[in-house]
# Entry
Amino acid sequence: MIFVDRLEELARLNRVAASEEGGLVVVYGRRRVGKTRLLLEWAKKHAGVYTVADQSVAELQRRYFAEALGGVLSGFADVEYPDWRSLLSRVAREAQLAGWRGPLIFDELPYLVLASPELPSVLQRWIDHDARAARLAVAVAGSSQRMMQGFVLAGDAPLFGRAREILDIQPLPPAYLRDVFPVPGGVRHVELHTAWGGIPRYWELALDAGDDVQNQVDQLVLDPLGPLHREPDRLLLEEIPSALETRPLLDAIGAGAHRVSEIAGRLGRPATSMARPLERLLALGLVRRELPFGEDEKSSKRALYKIADPFFRLWFRVVAPYRAQLASGTPVVRRQLLARFWDGLCAQSWEELCRQQIPRLPEQGSLGQLGPWGPATRWWHGARPEWDVVSESLDGTRVLLGEAKWSARPFDRKTLGAALSELAVKPPPPLPPRLASARHVRALFVPEAAAKPGVAAERPDGLTLITAADLLGG
# Structure
């Protein structure tokens, strides 16, 4: 797959490599998000050395590391190194003599630390003295977010305060789907996001599985022989330490339990025992905490917990509860099972895309001209009408009130007109006092609208129509 986006991340890495002083870069993020590809692109651009650890013993890890360096430091791999201190000291000396300034990349650092618990302290001294004297650009990376944050972000972490750049690599923005997949925009892009989210590895696999998104899901996920059939369990197990203890919570949330009390009830546990595993899932980026617009983050008791990753949401809705049925079913049975949930998954994905893209709207668009907008959330309360998209303009003079409607077919004149008329009379939610005089901007979000004359002219005054092309481009 082509290398897309990561422009800001590469720019920050390049600044460190070009700096006269060199320095430390820390890169972390969930597995499959593209950290390795980013670091390989960086190493290639600057003739650096990329090394990746595995779960071997420390002696073999040092041997592999030395062999990787042998390509730029002559004779480096001809020596056996008894410990990391002696190996790293020689790296700095030989690099200084050769005029090589990196970047030197340690990928999957947590595996090195598991075999050599003293390594973070050794790295700390090396970064402070030898590597600084050699003006080396050094990067450490890892997928275990708990361990990586423990090395760098905590006040007592060995590398705390030493990094010139700390990059938390996030999934690719959905707008890049159009650069990778040769399909028409609108509905198809929403379906791709529903299945694969922003994870480059999943995009890569889907590219080789044909153009039909549901066929891709069947081949890669539903089929017991598919490469992603057990993906969530693998990802949780590969965390250091393992995050498999959070699996029951994901099962409960995926099945529709979103309040702490509901999740605890499904699992037969006290609600007070949910805090730690929920915090772990939040840190991993697999779950998000959702509050109604205007609610106080600290004092609100109306929080809902939702699976944040689209692929995980699909897996826990379609695969986890029906593993036995999928194991014995034919492709036709598997596709019928997926069809039961597909529209609902797409509708949820479309809502989230609308909220996600609001702060990124281009200024030249009809809605972007009224911004810029802050983060968008939902609003709900009891039996009152819910709002899918609520956002405040950064200057506080406008409030966006939006409805997201999903259909796998373009909205025609009749259905679009009905949805716009319904939006025009929908009662607004109660807003915080600071927004009492703010102008209400109402918007209808649909993936595609049939291009028929008269639709725009018949739109009620003050309403804006937004399509996937407006949000994602194309």
Remarks:
- The chain has three domains: 7-168, 175-352, 353-472.
- The two ends are 20 Å apart (CA to CA).
